Amino acid sequence: MPTPSIDILGLTKTFGSLTAVDGLSLSVDSGEMFGLVGPDGAGKTTTIRMLCGILIPTAGTATILGRDLRRDSDAVKKNIGYLSQRFSLYGDLTADENIEFFAEINQVYDYHKRREELLEFTRLTPFRKRLADYLSGGMKQKLALACTLIHAPKILLLDEPTTGVDPVSRREFWKILSSLCESNITILMSTPYLDEAERCTRVALLNKGKLMVVDTPSNVKKRMRGQVLEVVPEGDLRRAAQLLRSSGTAHEVQAFGDRLNLVVENAERDFPAIEALLNKHDTRVLDWRVISPSLENIFISMMTQQTEEEVRL
């Protein structure tokens, strides 16, 4: 079997009494787009910062391209590109100048051809002379990615790269990432957007610093307990959701736009009781159907099960 691009074993990071990452073990294959998924405080950012060498692990090991993160940190850093959550470039420099600056700090001195390619690749050529402060949020992230790629890293570590970016820019950014994977660059990224995580080859669901599951998005969905019932109620959606939550007729109740997603044991069997409850409170069901679970459904379901197990213990 080929050596993984990233191999993590028992990686742990504590800050005083807080364990931010708790014995994390996983591997990422070459050319893979791997997603770290979880809520705030799950340990995603801390994991990526340890892999970048910004934070020193409390325990555990990690190898990147076969090199030990601690013993060969300089060699590791030459092969990785890191994109942080927030735009961290220089607002008073142009797009051209930002790329030039990052080329020099990465000791890439013959960067002109590479810069042209990256500007074209990220569709920033028309904006190359614009100060970074005057770029849109999506353009800033694309510029940050271009700077991250200037030294041709083999691995990209992206920490919530599309947070705060408009939907159109998010789609463009994902097209760029997909193109990078086709060129055999390995991408490890964290994201709070579960719809984005479904584009990854595999995902790791994290909660409170612990690994819940690692698998393909489709296999993770198979872990769903029960079925997801989509209900479109008439009138006040929030009131309908509250009625169903307080009644205990569904394991989980989530609102999406003008409809509710209910996790139930058996949709055909449980729907009549749900409809009767809403009718009793003058809320008519306009439509309903059984739908495939999303990663968000799965994550919430697994977190609920985990909480129930902790309470029993």
**Within the CATH hierarchy, at the fold level, what is the topology of the largest domain?**
Rossmann fold
Distance between the termini: 40 Å
Q: Nearest-angstrom radius of gyration? A: 23 Å
Structural class: alpha/beta
Q: What is the architecture of the largest domain at the second tier of CATH?
A: 3-Layer(aba) Sandwich
In the CATH scheme, the class of the largest domain would be: Alpha Beta
Q: Could you tell me the strand content as a percent range?
A: 25-35%
- The tally of structural domains comes to 2
Q: What is the element string, with H for helices and E for strands?
A: EEEHEEHEHHHEHEHEEHEHEEHEH
Instruction: Note the total helix count.
Output: 11
CATH superfamily of the largest domain: P-loop containing nucleotide triphosphate hydrolases
Mean pLDDT: 89
Poorly predicted parts: none
Adjacency order of strands in the biggest sheet: 6-7-8-3-9-10
Shape: globular
**What profile does the largest beta sheet have?**
6 strands, mixed
Q: Using DSSP, what is the number of strands?
A: 14
Helix content estimate: 25-40%
